[in-house]
Amino acid sequence: MVRLPYLTALTTLFSYGLLFAFGQIRDFFRKILDWPKSKGLKGYAPICLGLEDFYTRRLYLRIQDCFGRPIASSPDSRIDVVERFSTDSNKTLQRTIKTTSCINLGSYNYLGFAAADEYCTPLVIESLKKYSPSIAVFGWMAELVARFVGKPAAITFGMGYVTNSAIIPVLMGKGGLIISDTLNHNSIVNGARASGATIRVFQHNSPSHLEEVLREQIAEGQPRTHRPWKKIIVVVEGIYSMEGELCNLPEIIAVCKKYKAYTYLDEAHSIGAIGKTGRGVCELLGVDTADVDIMMGTFTKSFGSCGGYIAASKKIIQYLKYTCPAHIYATAMSPPAVQQVISSIKVILGEDDGSNRGAQKLTRIRENGNFFRSELKKMGFEVLGDNDSPVMPIMLYNPAKIPAFSRECLRQNVAIVTVAFPATPLLLARARICISASHTREDLIKSLEVISTVGDLVGIKYFPIENEKAQALKKMD
What we know:
InterPro entries: Aminotrans_II_pyridoxalP_BS (IPR001917), Aminotransferase_I/II_large (IPR004839), AON_synthase_class-II (IPR050087), PyrdxlP-dep_Trfase (IPR015424), PyrdxlP-dep_Trfase_major (IPR015421), PyrdxlP-dep_Trfase_small (IPR015422). Pfam families: Aminotran_1_2. This protein is of the alpha/beta class. Helices cover about 45% and strands about 15% of the residues. Helix 6 links the parallel strand 4 (about 175-180) and strand 5.
């Protein structure tokens, strides 16, 4: 969990308070003077209104060059970032034809499959020639995915976000209860809201609080009628994308079994990236996949493709095929995307050419991630997450530090993703680093040097005492 230092909390609150106060004063006088003249339709209420609009105008637009940077290359260990400029204080950004080669610490390219691969790429090109770009040929992929994750059957979708937001309303409805981790992804939140089921949340990664919520809800039953719930499902993630933390899956499954609740596991960031053979958080933590009722994952991270999947019993998958609108009406994945998934899984399994490239990639991403996380902590940064996780957020907090850290890293040819509201709580802005198996040790050391220098410049090393102790112990050794 985030540990907000006392002084940092005060300065962060003061910064946002100052921004809010001056912004509201400026908006007040603009309204009084009607300057600049309103461009909206006279007599109509503004479509964009509220604190989100205020935040967008007063903060986001001023630092939007730090977000959504266009690239002109594949998202490998290095990327070509397109240079942009603004002539109106960042309200609009103009692209140039110039690019900057940077070490890429922002892409979900965990195993390096998002770039050209000696085995995958030729097969992808051949599938495009053979099947054209739009025919649906994903029967083989669903069987391979089911075998890979350890479930009897699987169903695939063309988009990862849709996999959650469309499947949950099919599985749950009125009279059902969804218990969700407080830090679950927005796709889970929207899917739960669309289902019509009652929603309750439990404290992040806390099996004890989950048990409290389950006991209370089972005792009370449905709202108004107090009848027993038709079914209860607990939704968690394998790796939490904004925290880098592993799910306490064994303990959560034990609680679900005790109270006869189903388990829904989102492995968007964990499948393919962790575990001895890349089979995700269940393999890493020693959980039998038979104990997880619904397993969800995406192909956009470790596999270098697009889309998502649901793996479960044959009965559940057959039900989803007949009832899920995202499967019945949506366009299927294209053959090149399907072939990329099939080829990358075969590389991981060692079924491509009998080589051990997949095992090497898994070893490398684990070593790269643990090395980078350890070094960041030694430097005094507040880094979230667990060992073996390729996602490692560095806490920034203060709104002024978001653009300063992002721009200075880019100036020194290191591309880093900064994340702020609404993707995170307002006061908990961060830089999120994603490590890849394609990063060399030289890439990582160079990145650490840049991040350390920029961290000193911006002032985001929140644990200098711990850093000094670590250095002293290192010298003694």
